[in-house]
Amino acid sequence: MSRVRPILFNGEMVRAILDGRKTVTRRCVKARSKNACGFYVTFRKSDNTFMGVYDYDENERQFDSSQTPPYQPGDILYVREAWEEWTGGYLYKAWPDGICQPGAWKDMPWRPSIHMPKKSARIWLKVTDVRVERLQDITNEQILKEGANPEAIEHYIKQMPEESEEWVHAAHVIEFKHLWDSIIKKADLDRYGWDANPWVWVIEFERCEKPKGWPT
After folding, report:
1. What pairing do the DSSP bridges indicate for beta strands 4-8 and 76-80?
2. Distance, CA of 29 to chain centre
3. Are 37 and 54 in contact (CB under 8 A)?
4. How far apart are CA 18 and CA 79, in angstroms?
């Protein structure tokens, strides 16, 4: 039976999902213990299938159990986003066309996504794949699937000395680095920013219907 879990996205990423441009998200692998200093990532030798992530301490002693991904293939996710109650329903800060819906023009304090109740969810996603990799291993295709702005990437490509494969990838990375670092707390950039190249959970998904029996 599929699990139903919440997932948070900012307004820019919600719009990318609604536009059909975002079908994957990366979430940092974070230590479970304050004594953890890093991670061992293990794979099966035969097919390179991911097996587990193990925390280790300052003496490189491995903690007993591996970390599990926050989501599993088959999970149904309901998106939490900035919202507000409105007559007969809800308003959402992010809209695919960039135009505020009736009432949204008011100077209202949008409620943070973390406090969004289940019944107000409007976007559901089905997890299709989960893996772990280093952040900087991301490909150009994956950067676009992350919801990066293709127009910004094209702009960077035009500024490059040449349109070689290396420079085109550099243009994609510039845009994704800006996107990634913008969602990381400044105090955490040294551990989880692009330059730190952290281990990340790569979570692929597709849009799906609201589960039966969902609260209304």
Report:
1. parallel
2. 12
3. no
4. 11
Q: Flag whether pLDDT at 62 surpasses 80.
A: no
What's the pLDDT at 45?
64
CA dihedral 113, 186, 175, 191 (to 10 degrees): -100
**Cα 115 from chain centroid?**
18
Q: How far apart are CA 39 and CA 201, in angstroms?
A: 13
Tracing tokens 């023009």 back to the chain, one arrives at 105
Q: How are the residues of the chain apportioned to helix, strand and coil, as percentages rounded to the nearest 5?
A: 30, 30, 45
pLDDT at 106 over 70: no
The pair of structure tokens assigned to 109 is: 């304090």
- Record the pTM: 0.88
Mean pLDDT in residue range 109-123:
90
Closest to 119 measured CA to CA, from 24, 42, 25, 210: 210
Rounded to 5 degrees, φ, ψ at 164 are: -80, 165
- Asked if 82 and 141 count as a contact pair (C-beta separation under 8 A), the reply is no
**Tokens at residue 166, please?**
């290396």
